[in-house]
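step=predict obj=ABC transporter substrate-binding protein n=364
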Amino acid sequence: MNLKKRKNMKKMITKVAITSALLMAMSVSMQAKEKVYKLKLATTWGKTTVPLIDTTYEMVKLAEEMSNGRLKIRVDTASKHKAPLGILDMVKAGQYDMGHSASYYWKGKDINTLPFTSMPFGLTAPEQYAWFYHGGGLELMQKVYSKHKVLSFPGGSTGVQMGGWFRNEINSLDDLKGLKMRIPGFAGEVMAKLGVVVTNIAPGELYTSLDSKTIDALEWVGPSMDIKMGFHKIAPFYYTGWHEPASEMQFLINKRSFDKLPKDLQTILKVSMRTSAYNMYIKNYDMNITAWKNMLKDNPDIKVKTFPKVVMDEMKKSNKELRDEVSSKSPLLKEVLDSQDAYQKKAREWTKMSDYLYLKDNLK
């Protein structure tokens, strides 16, 4: 074989080798793109806890559709895993890759998680979303949850929650002394300082407890979820909210599970969570509108009330004392609360101009 033929043969072999390498690389790339990643998610909610459970399923559907089937998430409701208030522990341990719950449920384990759901007299839902995504709130949430080796993202807001159903009207602080009420969390501690006998009762027992006068009042959510419970049929006084002005749910993700996902699937997952969270907020708003009309149809004698100023002033005072007490024990909690306070102060001027004054001038 002469020199020219040898050179041509060498070129041909090189081309074949390059082509084979390219084909192999393309094959590996296509296989990587087509790999299906399967995650397991546990919720605090049962199948009928609408719209909270809907948010979970919508997120799962969005993630699978946007990933063209490469990201599949199995949802286990509370009736299956039997630990509705164990979501953080299960995600932290890797038993589940993800969870959908509410951050203030973990205050007994980590007091720093409390403010990411809602705080009495705190941010409204639009203000809180702005704080999360543009005011440093999301970064603070990751800072709090980093020691648990999980990530946390906003998971849907109920907006302002109502102050509760009362059998009797509240006209003074004396009317709260000895009153038996179901109201959990930080708000329960505030009410306890005002003399309320605070109790926590399972959801399935709330109606019978109120009907049998085992309790005198209870707080649940708002018309969208209260209507199914039937409270409006036995307690005529419906008080406006103060304790949870922007109750935000949360998506939890095990950090190792998240890091194993390709970058594009990480982005798809975050977009799916953010979209479904906002959709829950507007869906619940619509449900409140419809449910409130139906409540009034069932019981036209419902009286919407606001707590008297003397009661509200004492609530605010007790709330500040409790906040100062718990934040003095945790610099990280103080950092989160200070951040929320600063953002609220900055945002409230615009909230007043845009929403409050508009409504004030047009609700005559």
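step=describe
The mean pLDDT is 93.
step=end
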